[in-house]
Amino acid sequence: MTTPIIFDCDTGIDDALAMLYGAGNGADFVACTVTHGNVPVATGARNTVTVLDYLGLDTVPVFEGAARPMAQPLMTAEFVHGQDGLGDAGVVQSTRAVSGDMAAAEIVRLVRSRPGELTLVAVGPLTNIGMALLLEPELPTLVKDVIIMGGAVGVPGNSAEFGEANVWHDPEAAQLVIDAAWDVLFVGLEITMKTGLAAESLERIGASEDPRAQLAWKIMQFYLDVYEGQMGVRTCVLHDPLAMALALDPELATYRTIEASLELRGGRSRGQLIGDLRGYNKATLDPKAPGVIRIVESLKTEEFHENFLRSLGA
User: Start and end of every Inosine/uridine-preferring nucleoside hydrolase domain (predicted)?
Assistant: First the structure.
């Protein structure tokens, strides 16, 4: 059994790890669409092609998309992912050409061609998805599932005091996604920050002779350095791989439905995903209602980690 996926990404280190996870756990990559975020969009697209080709998925089309957010300047995160987005590890880049530069239009075209079949997994700023919603108001009825890596509900942010990077980099686009009438899952920092790899898992990756593990280990070193500096222990957090994992196996987690919105006007709080956690009306909330999202309540972390290691041959 495979899951046909449109993967919207800004390929840095954890996006690459998410592709490795997907390839090893039943993802059928129909297309990858790329946005600004971790790195500029052209760099992200080149990295996406490179990782796909490394995995033997050289027929998966890659489309460049939004080069900047809807309503604020471009900001990138090379300090987390390296200047090349893949940890400055000397990964040889693929020379395959991207398939086009209109990612939002491609998302619309693909879901129109296969209504109700495709799962949309977005692990970067939501500009491409917001634009697709503006192009096709019926988009929510055409996709099967929508999984977003984004937000920080009730916990600190990582790009600002309250802002998680993917939402913070384009809050207006994220609000469009929240306002759409679909059942959307936000996989946020409230759960992804609990997915740090233990030393034993890192040892398994480092010791593996599988080419997938060797690629992961190579690009992860920069990431491990960043998290060691932040957390005081050598680990890394699997943000994007968790979104991919829940797209492929929703049973790995339990979920909570909440009303949500984006703070768009505040100075220090702009980009904060605000979720109503009081639970007053949780029994009557419709997950497909505009302004309603699902978040992860609990995760089978050990099973998720084993799936990740298996996808690397570690």
Answer: 5-305
